[in-house]
Amino acid sequence: MQHGIYMAVTADKNLELVLKVMPAIVVIMAVSALCGRLALMVKQPRVLGEMIAGVLLGPTFFGALFPHAQETVFSAEVKPILYVLSTIGLTLFMFLVGAGMDHGSTGGGREGRQAATLAISGMVPSLLLGIGAGYLLYDHLSRPDVSTLEFSFFVGGALSITAFPMLARILYERRLQNSRLGRMTLLGASVDDAAAWCFLAVLSAWHAKAGAMHALRTILLAAAFAAVMLFVVARVLRPLGNYVERTGNFGFDQMYLVGGIVLLAGYFTDYIGIYSVFGGFIAGLAMPRNPAFREALHGRMMDLVCVLLLPIFFAFSGLNTQLNGLAGWGMVLPFLLILVAGFSGKYFGCALAMKGVGFSWREAYAVGGLMNARGLMILIFINIGLAQGMITQDVFSLLVLVAVITTAAAMPLYRWALPERIEQRMEAEQKAPATTASGSEREDAGPADAAAASDARPSPATAGSS
To answer: What residues have CB less than 8 Å from 261, skipping those under 6 apart?
Structure first.
């Protein structure tokens, strides 16, 4: 009798929770769809609209204008569910980003060295300038339990990241992915992002409260995990890629296997203290590199992740973003310092690197603008920092604003450097050799498929979309 009453009460509570979560998700999807469409209308990537939608749903706008409604839609009971869904979505998204990276090919020795130069020039200047800005702002913005070095390195790491999926999508939409500029930019951005996630993994381990030995243990476990995934699991999965390539069949059995690997990888890295997105990213790198496998994987997963789960992440980020408290010179000056440090490091560092390896100034500045977009990637980075207590709410809000501004500036800077007439000429130049390209060259068009081609159809933005 008592057991039956308990079950009935539990069922009622579960139903009540479902009736609270469903409207919140519908509101998130509706606002994200609207803002994404508006972004496309002003020739901005959809992901920018989705980022702004997250901020609008937070306390700065929705909460300020309709506090009761915002509290009802995003109640204390709903937020943990949104957090779980956003974490699963991010893990799957980073898995698709990793699966889309052509880390096994550099496009030739000379091109590979040029891409490495671009990656270093895109990351190191912004990292160093960000560290300097963090050091100057430590007393004003940091938590007292975070060291100066840790805070400074976190700010530098956040500013050094590039929105690889968004950059890839832009190049695909303009059919420049197989141009020399496109191939090198994609490879350089992918190296940038991979280095940034490894950097964050080390920072997370460093931040662990259990002392140096615990941090060392976390780093060693992360390195062992990456080695097992990239050298053991990747080899075991090769027959799966060959099977899909040979038969064209990517059914439920294959999805169960892939989905299980991703979630287990995310669980393990979360368990050792470096967040589940790192596990998803490494799992993606371990996937087969066959073009048919990548295309099937993307077709199965990317749209659902982008339409349903990523908007939830943007909304959850928005709920943690409070821009009202940033007014006044006390926060404006730190914001400007962080913005200038991040923008100049990426933009001029990448532009000078591109010019140095033989590109024109127009091409160099176009790449500098694209590489400067941070999109979804920086939001993932700073959400981890906020969740682990490495930064304060104010720093989180400042970096969200930097993410929105640098992402919004990417396309205008790109168009200013490469007007359509020059783009069309570049496309015509690459079409001539493309008509006689071998299958291996056509395979090069696939590296960013899982992260970028979704919006080329068009459909919901990746970001940083990532």
So the answer is: 233, 283, 286
**Beta-carbon neighbour count of residue 421 at 10 Å?**
7
Residue 347 token pair: 């933009």
Distances (CA, A) of 139 to 90, 152, 390: 32, 11, 14
Pick from 152, 119, 172: which is nearest to 371 by CA?
Answer: 119
Three-state DSSP state, 377: helix
pLDDT digits (tens, 9 = 90+) for 153-188: 999 999 998 877 677 767 766 666 667 777 777 778
Q: How far apart are CA 81 and CA 16, in angstroms?
A: 13
Q: How far is CA 417 from CA 40, 47, 365, in A?
A: 20, 22, 6
- Of 11, 47, 367, 443, residue with least CA distance to 189: 367
* Sequence-ordered alpha helix ranges (H) in 325-457: 329-356, 361-371, 375-387, 393-417, 420-434, 439-443, 449-452
As a whole number, mean pLDDT of residues 373-378 equals 81
Residues 130 and 381: their CA atoms lie apart, in Å, by: 14
From the list 163, 160, 222, 188, the residue with the least C-alpha distance to 102 is: 188
Of the candidates 195, 218, 201, which has an alpha carbon nearest to the alpha carbon of residue 127?
A: 195
DSSP structural state of residue 231: I
Quote the radius of gyration of the chain (alpha carbons, Å). 22
The whole-model pTM stands at: 0.75
Q: Please count the helices (runs of H) and the strands (runs of E) in the chain.
A: 22, 0
* CA 410 to chain centroid: 15
Q: How far apart are CA 40 and CA 49, in angstroms?
A: 8
3-state SS, residue 1: coil
